[in-house]
Each structure stands twice: as C-alpha cells, then as structure tokens.
Design a protein that fits this description.
Layout lengths: L7 E9 L8 H8 L9 H10 L8 E10 L8 H15 L4 E7 L2 H9 L3 E9 L6 E8 L2 H21 L9 H9 L11 H11 L5 H16 L11 H8 L4 H8 L4 H16 L2
Parallel strand pairs: 2-3
Antiparallel strand pairs: 1-2, 3-5, 4-5
Helix pairs in contact: 6-9, 7-8, 7-11, 8-9
Length: 277
C-alpha cells in the first residue's frame, strides 16, 4: 500500500448568503448601525462596516482562514496549485468569492496577488497577533461576483493615495510599491505638459521640491505601475518623501542621508535616471 502524507492544509469557512445560511435584512441593518456582529461573517461585515459596500451581504463567500504548506516543500508552487483546487471546490459550493485576511507583508500580499486575488481593504491599526496591519483580499468566482469585485477594488484605490499621508503613512514603502503596482488604470492621472516640465525641472535642479511635488506624485504613480518596478528599490525613498509625506529628518534617518541637500540630490538623480529610460 502506498503511504500517503499530508503536505498542505487549509481551513475554510462559508460566509454571507449561502445555501445553509439566509441572513435577515434586520440583522444586516443592525450590523450596519454597529448594534450587533454576526458570527462567522467576517468578510461581509468588514466590507459593509469598514468599506461602505452596502451590498456585501448579497454574496456567498468562502474564506480561507488558514492555508499552510510544509516548510520543506514551500516555494515550489504547491500553495498556488492548492488554491486553484480550493477555488474549484468553492465554485461547486456556489460561492461568489474566495476570500482571505492576514497580517499584510510584501511577501504574503505578493502570494495572494499572484493568485489573482485583489485588495478590498487594509486595516488602519496593527493586529496584536501578527504585528502587521490586516489585509482583506478577494477573488471572484462567479459572473455576479466579477462586477462587484471591480467596484470593491476600485473603492479601495479611490482613497488609497489620500490615506497614505495619514492612516497608511507608515506602511513599508516596498508594500506601498506593490499595492500601487496593481492600481487600476482609471486611478492614474495623465501627466500634462506642465507636469512633465515640473518633473524634468526638479530633476535638473531648476525647481524647488514643494513647487512641483504634486507633479512628482503623478509621475511616481505612473512609474510604479510599470512591469519591472516591483523589484526596483530606488523609488522607495521617493514613496516615503513624496507620497507618504515623511519629513526630511525622518527620511534622512531611515536611509542614512546626511541632510536635506543630500536627500534632494538623491531624489533628483533617481528621477533623472528614470527619465532617461
């Protein structure tokens, strides 16, 4: 008899509207008004109360609560293969979405994005267990889910830039780069002729940072969606200074610059090198 071994496991839970669960409108209204929480409905509750997705409870979610591959067999595509099987199983159960929530790091988020999940939310506070802010990701499994997911993901990106200067100000720059790499095209502002002149002028030392930082922001966001940009660490300082509004002293301490002039010279040189590509 061939010996069988378990080398990957997952813990799944059904949430939202499913064949064995019909959630009443009164209960949803109570959740929306912070009067009660529904057991085993983390995803739709989070979408409704944290993201303002008013139709969140109209869908059936299968949430991956835990997924693990044996440490000696990781980095071989097993997790990806397993997730595909889980997605097929969820479809057979009538789920509209496969979902998961986890303490967000670049490595973990890369795994889920690689497997065709998209961001629905990043929490504002660090989780006590993981020490990271939590991410909620979704993958549509039905035509009904497709349209909703486009809306949910767009709502996340609609406010992400704004939140970078406060609630997400201390997200690691590598994580911000990965998140913005997946930004939908409709949330990319086109560079005007004046914006291009501002960016070029700053890179040549002809313009002050504050007088053209908005143009630099637009330019940087365009750079971050380029195919090869996720592995390019040269833009991390720009993310901290331009997008997250870290102070000169904060950036100098974090990256080892001697002062304002050295930092500005670095910003200019990185932009010049990108403009030359």
């Amino acid at each position: 008899v061939m010996e069988q071994q378990v080398f990957a496991v997952a813990l799944l839970i059904n949430e939202g509207q499913s064949n064995d669960c019909n959630i009443e409108t009164n209960d949803i209204n109570a959740v929306n008004h912070s009067k009660r929480r529904l057991k085993n409905n983390f995803v739709p509750q989070s979408l409704l109360t944290q993201c303002g997705i008013e139709y969140a409870f109209d869908y059936h979610y299968m949430r991956v609560m835990r997924i693990a591959v044996h440490p000696q067999l990781q980095q071989q595509g097993i997790g990806t293969y397993f997730l595909k099987d889980i997605a097929n199983f969820a479809r057979l159960q009538g789920a509209d979405f496969l979902a998961s929530s986890f303490g967000v790091t670049k490595a973990l988020l890369s795994f889920w994005l690689h497997n065709e999940f998209v961001l629905a939310r990043i929490g504002f506070n660090k989780d006590k267990a993981s020490g990271e802010q939590s991410a909620l990701v979704l993958k549509a499994l039905s035509k009904k889910g497709d349209a909703a997911l486009t809306d949910i993901n767009a709502e996340f990106y609609r406010s992400f830039d704004y939140l970078l200067t406060d609630e997400y100000q201390h997200l690691p720059a590598k994580l911000v780069a990965l998140i913005l790499h997946c930004c939908p095209a409709e949330y990319l502002t086109s560079l005007s002729a004046r914006d291009k002149a501002n960016v070029d002028g700053f890179s040549q030392g002809h313009r002050q940072f504050s007088s053209c930082v908005f143009s630099l922001h637009i330019w940087l966001k365009q750079q971050l969606v380029q195919p090869t940009i996720v592995a390019d660490d040269s833009l991390l300082v720009l993310i901290n200074r331009i997008m997250q509004k870290h102070s000169i002293s904060e950036v100098c301490i974090e990256y080892g610059f001697t002062g304002k002039k050295a930092l500005e010279h670095y910003l200019q040189s990185v932009i010049r090198s990108r403009l030359a590509i």
